[in-house]
């Protein structure tokens, strides 16, 4: 089924990528960091929580090396211009309330931006998709709008955190397309980005996201061949990632297929 995007604001035409001698201009590979919750909660069975103190040190590590954290939208725009050197994509999955209460002030102090992927079907709810572990509140409408006002990109994580590779055609369409419409109504703007729940992506899911009108989608590992910007790989960042581990991850990003190539 082809998505009806008539109720979603139209996006601008993609910016042509720079070329040299008719060929795409290559530049340094940028990498995208994947965060989830920012909390002092010690119960973290899925390794998706970073303490506020650890996040502060990680952001300081980036700034100390001349790196600036940006949203995926900003990173892709810079890549299209060939100006992505020194940028790191910052993403926060699931749309936990602590993104606004804890992470956002840290990002703003350093002049960083980020993309927060929210679940429009669970606005103001909690992480019901996790069978064990603590219940954590998700952003409500006011929290989502606060993130937008602060200059963050708000994008879709699907409606209810379903594995799209196992979804029926109807569920896939609803999770991908309806989430875009609902979120656009909340933020009163276009929704350019999508993030596959659990990072699971196949050609069918990527095609559904593309047809729904998104400009890009994030996964974890690189997706099937030909997905391009609809399966952008990311580096998982956890509470154990000290400056030494971050430096190692940065250096190995391209080797491990987690880098965003400027091609």
UniProtKB/TrEMBL annotation:
SUPFAM superfamilies: Glycoside hydrolase/deacetylase. It is found in: Secreted. It comes from the Bacteria. Keywords: Signal. PROSITE patterns: NODB. InterPro entries: Glyco_hydro/deAcase_b/a-brl, NODB_dom, Polysacch_Deacetylase. Residues 86-263 form the NodB homology domain. Gene3D superfamilies: Glycoside hydrolase/deacetylase (3.20.20.370). Its main location: secreted. Residues 1-26 are annotated as: Disordered. PANTHER family: POLY-BETA-1,6-N-ACETYL-D-GLUCOSAMINE N-DEACETYLASE, PTHR34216. This is Polysaccharide deacetylase family protein. The lineage of its organism: Bacteria, Bacillati, Actinomycetota, Actinomycetes, Kitasatosporales.
């Amino acid at each position: 089924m082809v998505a009806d995007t008539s109720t979603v604001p139209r996006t601008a035409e993609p910016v042509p990528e720079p070329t040299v001698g008719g060929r795409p201009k290559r530049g340094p590979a940028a990498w995208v960091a994947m965060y989830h919750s920012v909390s002092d909660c010690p119960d973290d069975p899925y390794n998706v929580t970073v303490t506020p103190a650890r996040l502060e040190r990680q952001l300081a590590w980036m700034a100390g090396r001349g790196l600036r954290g940006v949203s995926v939208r900003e990173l892709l725009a810079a890549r299209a211009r060939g100006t992505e050197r020194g940028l790191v994509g910052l993403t926060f999955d699931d749309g936990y309330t602590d993104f606004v209460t804890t992470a956002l002030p840290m990002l703003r102090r350093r002049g960083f931006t980020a993309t927060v992927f929210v679940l429009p079907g669970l606005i103001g709810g909690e992480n019901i998709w996790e069978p064990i572990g603590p219940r954590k509140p998700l952003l409500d409408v006011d929290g989502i709008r606060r993130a937008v006002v602060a200059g963050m990109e708000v994008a879709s994580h699907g409606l209810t955190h379903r594995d799209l590779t196992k979804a029926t055609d109807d569920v896939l369409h609803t999770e991908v397309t309806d989430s875009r419409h609902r979120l656009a109504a909340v933020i009163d703007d276009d929704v350019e980005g999508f993030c596959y729940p659990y990072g699971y992506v196949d050609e069918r899911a990527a095609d559904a996201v593309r047809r729904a009108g998104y400009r890009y989608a994030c996964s974890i590992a690189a997706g099937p061949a030909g997905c391009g910007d609809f399966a952008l790989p990311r580096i998982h960042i956890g509470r154990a990632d000290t400056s030494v581990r971050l430096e190692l991850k940065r250096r190995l990003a391209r080797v491990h297929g987690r880098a965003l190539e400027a091609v």
